[in-house]
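The material for today's practical consists of a large collection of protein records. Read left to right, the backbone structure tokens trace the chain's path through space. An example says more than a description, so a record of this kind follows:
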Amino acid sequence: MKKYAHIFICTLITSLLALSSCVSGPETAKSAPSSKETAKVAKTRTVLTKVPVLVKETVFYSDGLMDGFFLYKLDDGKKSVIEKSKYDASRAEPIERQVFEYKGGREIADSLYESDGKLRSRRELGYDSAGLLASERMIDAKGAVLSSSAYAYDKSGRKTEWRALDGSGAAKAVTSYAYADGLLVSVEMRDSSGAVTGTIKSEYEGGKLAKRSYSGSGGEAQKVEAYSYAGPRPAALETRRSDGSLIAKTAYEYGGSGELAKATEYLPSGSVSSYTTYEYVVREDSTTETYFE
């Protein structure tokens, strides 16, 4: 199966699931503070919010032939993914399965299984007192620690550091994050000796990410990612070399509730390389609000 930028897509899906609401009639009533002219009554009503939840993504070649797909199994409340299965076009059974574990509403571990059901690896997550992700451990099928990660945050809960460690706990690399006006503007990567291995600079327009510029260890430009928008949502992502030549382009299409429906990847020539479609189920979240009339 072709490699695909699933991290970006998953982040995009999560951030773009627009919410639509419907309101039921009054349920209860009580007296509101009276005024000299009229006495208003406090009433409550239930607001239902419809949330699209991803259950399938399918990757196609440019000619429409399916390359493979992912299925997401949800819990009964449709709030958490409990299993993600990867399929190719030639088999009815998954070629790998990722099973997720939760505690207190947070993911605490996920395990990756081969097509024959054998465990390949396991990832364990730890959180700090504020509920922020503090650590990760990658463990092989025999229980040996392969690698680990440690995270640090500022007082606003923004990630300031990601430290990558080997199986013994020794630092392999450190990534630092810097912010301005509440927005991430710089990412710097260093190796175990402290030498810079690369940087990423982000620029914004109207509070929306417009460009990411990647540089090498010596500060030399490597590539640029530029985003264009249709309203509040990204319409396309272009990746270009330092000389401005196009490497690839991804265009995004959305459904009626604002959910990502399709991502199409283009070659520099302008022809389609592949495309991915996304399917959802709807979860209804209810909240109670008070109003006066």
